[in-house]
Design brief:
The chain is mainly β and 403 residues long. The protein folds into 3 domains: 69 residues, no CATH class; 148 residues, Jelly Rolls (Sandwich); 129 residues, Jelly Rolls, CATH 2.60.120.230. The protein is built from 3 helices and 27 strands. Strands 3, 5, 6, 7, 8, 9, 10, 11, 12, 14 and 16 form an 11-stranded mixed β-sheet that branches. A 4-stranded antiparallel β-sheet has the order 17-26-20-23, with no helix packed on it. Helix 1 packs across helix 2. The chain is globular, with a radius of gyration of 22 Å. Bound molecules: protoporphyrin IX containing FE (HEM).
């Protein structure tokens, strides 16, 4: 359970803390409920992937039963003598590192950013909003974004508790339990001059009187210094199938697509994405000359509310000619409680009420590139980086329609 002060948090946090008995007791019934229905701890990848991805959140049956048993036995306080006396004794609460304080008073887990961006005006998440996903333009608030720069890290700092997750073309993603995106030394991504940085926000809250919130989410980037060497340029691509036509009421519509890897890559992370009708996703790998498919990722119970990023502990080397076979299942029936309209025929589209079946992945070239920061940037890398730029739409300076 996250709470402020833990090192692996992106600032997108669970709604309460359980660092002491008094706090935990209040939540006991809900803790048992969430453990039994499997919605906590939140994680999408099937148990078969345990040990493969960073920040995984599995709970053993034994621990689960221990917690449920504690609740069912009346959620009693343990022996005072056994209680950890300092925060350090609580392995869970001992932060591995501390956030850095910037001169303007803001706190950053990745270190003080070289450039910062923010919304033109705070976003008004009005009383009626319960589940709102605007794509918002970020404006430079500090540092220099007027020249091409190599970044090593990015961080999104949520500006309200209603932010459920955020995805940005240059800032990366903010999801519960995920810290800033910090690449190892020599790994980086290019932020082209004057990038058009957008942030796709997902605001989730109860609707109704008194629930309006103002959101001031900000983003930051950490750049390499001239003379540093970039060996691995992180890129991402989004294989997708836009031909889906999901019939009204269909509880198990299946759609597939294939994606061939043209040149050898190091695969860093997988980030599949669909909307409310997304039910499950499987990404299988076909290696040249090998008949049997290998399951790279199996998410048996996809949940649009949790946009997980499956990052390998050890990047995978995939040869040229390897193929990803992507299969999505969708539930367009009334049984799917997240379904906004089971009577609708659903096609591909950008709104949450439309569907997507993306299989975004992050990768680098396997051989070191030896790019010296400050030297001319290879045209192909610049073009690739600019592909992340979404040009301003008709919504103008804000980049989104108000709710
Ligand atoms: C044994 C482990 C965990 C238990 C028992 C647990 C329990 C709970 C409970 C009871 C709630 C619901 C509060 C409500 O309904 O008002 C909740 C919500 C939440 N938890 Fe957890 N949690 C666990 C692990 C985690 C972890 C590891 C994360 C993130 C890294 C997390 C993130 C969240 C978030 C963001 C919410 C709010 C969204 C939601 O209600 O779905 N939890 N958790």
């Amino acid at each position: 359970m996250p709470s402020a002060g833990r090192s692996n948090l992106g600032g997108v946090q669970a709604p309460f803390s359980v660092l002491n008995f008094e706090e935990a007791k209040i939540w006991a019934p809900l803790i048992s409920l969430r453990l039994k229905n499997g919605s906590m701890p939140p994680w999408g990848a099937h148990q078969q992937h345990q040990g493969t991805f960073k920040n995984e959140r599995y709970i053993s049956d034994e621990d689960k039963q221990l917690l449920i048993g504690w609740v069912e036995a009346g959620a009693l306080e343990g022996d005072a003598e056994d209680q950890p006396s300092t925060a350090d004794e609580l392995a869970l609460s001992a932060p591995a590192n501390e956030p850095t304080l910037a001169p303007d008073g803001s706190m950053w887990w990745m270190g003080v950013p070289d450039a910062t961006v923010a919304f033109a005006d705070p976003v008004q998440v009005c009383e009626e909003a319960s589940d709102w996903q605007p794509t918002i333009l970020m404006h430079r608030t500090g540092g220099d974004l007027s020249k091409h720069q190599w970044a090593q890290a990015s961080e999104i700092r949520p500006g309200s508790s209603t932010m459920h997750h955020g995805t940005s073309n240059y800032l990366g993603v903010a999801v519960p339990g995920r810290g800033p995106q910090v690449y190892p030394d020599g790994w980086g991504f290019l932020v082209p001059s004057d990038p058009f940085i957008t942030l796709n926000m997902h605001y989730a809250k109860q609707s109704g009187p008194g629930t309006a919130v103002e959101d001031n989410t900000v983003g930051g980037l950490l750049f390499y210094e001239p003379g540093d060497v970039i060996d691995y340029v992180v890129q991402n691509t989004i294989p997708m199938n836009t031909d889906i036509v999901i019939p009204p009421g269909d509880p198990n519509y299946m759609a597939t697509h294939e994606h061939t890897i043209e040149e050898e890559i190091l695969l860093l992370a997988l980030a599949p994405h669909s909307h409310y009708r997304g039910k499950a996703v499987k990404i299988e790998l076909e290696l040249p000359g090998v008949d049997e498919l290998e399951t790279l990722l199996w998410v048996p119970d996809y949940d649009f509310n949790w946009q997980f990023h499956y990052e390998y502990h050890e990047p995978r080397l995939l040869p040229a000619g390897a193929k990803m076979h992507v299969t999505w299942w969708f539930d367009n029936s009334a049984e799917n409680l997240a379904n906004p309209d089971p009577t609708a025929e659903v096609r591909w589209g950008p709104k949450s009420s439309d569907e997507m079946m993306n299989a975004r992945y992050y990768f680098t070239k396997p051989e070191p590139q030896g790019i010296v920061v400050g030297d001319a940037i290879p045209e192909s890398i610049l073009a690739q980086a600019r592909r992340g730029t979404i040009l301003p739409g008709p919504a103008g300076r804000l980049g989104y329609e108000k709710y």
